[in-house]
Amino acid sequence: MLRIERVSKRFESGTVALRAIDLALDRGEILGIVGTSGSGKSTLLRLVAGLDRPSEGAVLLDGVPVTEPRPELGLVFQEPRLMPWLSVRENVEFALPDRPKPERRARAEAALARVGLAAFADALPRALSGGMAQRAAIARALVARPEVLLLDEPFSALDAFTRMALQDHLLEIWRHDRPTLILVTHDIEEALVLSDRVLVLRARPGRIHAEYQLDLPRPRRRTDPRLQEWKERLLADLDLALGEAPGEPDFAI
Amino acid sequence: MTAFGRRLGGSALGWALPLLLLSIWEAIAQAGLVRANLLPPPAAVAATLWGLAKSGELAEHVTITLLRVLLGFLLGTAAATVLGALAGYSGTWRRLLDPTIQGLRSVPSIAWVPLFILWLGIFEASKITLIAVGVFFPVYLNLMAGIRETDRKLVEVARIHGYRGLALVRRVLLPATLPAYVTGLRGGLGLGWMFVVAAEMMGASEGLGFLLIDGQQTGRPAVILTSLLLFAVLGKATDLVLSHLGRRATRWQDSYAAQQERSADAADRAGFQAI
Question: Which residues are paired to A74 by β-bridges?
């Protein structure tokens, strides 16, 4: 349903952030993208979301090129990015601009209940902890029921416990609505717990280094030895990706 | 302490300095250190104030001055809001408008007076225009800067959810800009008061600025002091109205000052519950 066809992104500075990325996703698939910094993970997500346009190639959603944000595409940023002047519920309603008020309110409340924030609907964002704010942001991204949900390191600013709880929560939502998920992360374990398929990106220029279909059964346990094996394989990949990157040597002679 | 009690306590502290100055003034007058025809005692100023109030002149002067400030403020704010919003929102409009406006800003506003009088006559139109020019710049500058400094990240969230153009302005840029806008309005109002004096000193037959000149030409310092006092009170009162409205509109802000106010309110509630 989602195809990325020979997509390249060159910034005005001349930096090539992505080169010739080819990718296809099935409906309901969970794709994890890992890579070192500078490998263009976030850039790729912004192109898919329609926030930026590729220099070459195209992103196609059900055959239609994505040139600007579309309601079928949701995005969760690394930070909550809540509007500080709106209450938590109004922030979630913000994602439903064209619906009548009663429907907006009912759906926002349902979405907040699902992330366990029903009691905070009337609070202002400044009253929320980091984890709660990110949950509100996830509720906002989900309330419009996007077919594709893009997540840009959504849990990276959270403590380990909150992160695990939100990962489980994301899987619950996925079991319920079956959206297509693309998860950019620098946490290999997170990618392995969540994804059907993992993409390893390599930096300078950003390109696909490896792609793995994960044969791990669900629900997955973080302590599963097979998951640990995958972790080592991906770590080795990332080391390789780092080691082969051209540029300055790591030490001076 | 209740909120009311604290507010009273807070303003009591604010009154301390004026009262001290007043008693020093009274003491100087009593001791005869300065001649009364240069610095009349507070009682003489109070008597002048009372006399003006009784004859109805005071209400007349205050009304016309307030009206001029209000009209100039509305006019200047309206123009600044439209142009500031355009220049803040669109780079093309900014490149078109901003150099000219910044150039005009470097003309000291009083320097417009001869031209305004020539064009608009010596009556209300030229005065109100001058006040509007004074109000315009702080409002324009703050609004434009406020829009330009709106968090790109919040704008991206709005774009993701399909907001464009006017909806984007109304739902994101406007609320995000409100604190800067209020700052601009307060600065503009302050300048409005400054310019009403200039306008009224240059040719008017009524208004507080006229009262100043009248007091000077007829050698009545008590009238001058009365007028100054009224400017202080009216300027402060109108600013209080704006800052109160501004605080209500920007209550969501997570700033240090807002935090202080909230914790004081929370302390009130806690104290209230303890009782």
Answer: A149
> How much of chain A is in helix, strand and coil states, percent to nearest 5?
35, 25, 40
Taking Cα atoms as reference points, which of A182, A188, A186 lies closest to residue A203? Answer: A186
What type of residue is B156? E
User: A234 with A224: CB under 8 angstroms?
Assistant: no
Does the distance separating the beta carbons of A85 and B176 come in below 8 Å?
Answer: yes
Nearest to A205 by CA among A30, A51, A3, A10: A10
Among candidates A51, A86, A126 on the partner chain, residue whose Cβ is nearest the Cβ of B156: A51
Partners of residue A33 on adjacent β-strands: A184, A199
Of A86, A97, A126, the CB nearest to B161: A97
- pLDDT for B272: 43
Which pLDDT tens digit goes with each residue over A49-108?
999 999 888 888 888 888 888 888 999 999 999 999 999 999 999 999 888 999 999 999
**Beta bridge partners of residue A213, listed in sequence order:** A197
| Alpha carbons B85 and A29: distance in angstroms, whole number | 44
Q: Which of B153, B160, B166 should be substituted to probe chain A, the one whose Cβ sees the most A Cβ atoms within 10 Å?
A: B160
Distance separating alpha carbons of residues B77 and B191, to the nearest angstrom: 12
- As a whole number of angstroms, the distance between CA A203 and CA A47 comes to 17
Task: Show which residues on chain B lie within 8 Å of chain A, measured between beta carbons.
Answer: 153-154, 156-163, 167, 171-172, 175-176, 178, 250, 252-254
Rounded to two decimals, the pTM is 0.74
Q: Which two tokens stand for residue B56?
A: 């109805």
* A7: DSSP letter: E
Burial of B161: CB neighbours in 10 Å, binned 0-12, 13-18, 19+: buried
**Ordered strands of the A64-65 beta sheet:** A16-25, A2-10, A56-61, A64-65
Q: Which residues of A62-97 are buried (b: 16+ CB within 10 A; e: fewer)?
A: eeeebeebbbbbbbbbbbbbbbbbbbbbbbbbbbbe
pLDDT at B68 over 50: yes
Q: Which of A217, A223, A225, A138 is nearest to A183 (CA)?
A: A138
For residue A10, which of A22, A21, A24, A23 has the smallest C-alpha distance? A21
| CB contact at 8 A, A206 and A38 | yes
- Residue A111: what residue type? A
* Gap between the Cα atoms of B102 and B136, Å rounded: 12
Contact at CB, B162 and A75, closer than 8 angstroms:
no
Query: Rounded distance, CA A177 to CA A60, Å?
Result: 22
Q: Which residues does residue B260 pair with via DSSP β-bridges, in sequence order?
A: none
DSSP A31: E
- In the numeric block, the tokens 């390789």 are attached to A240
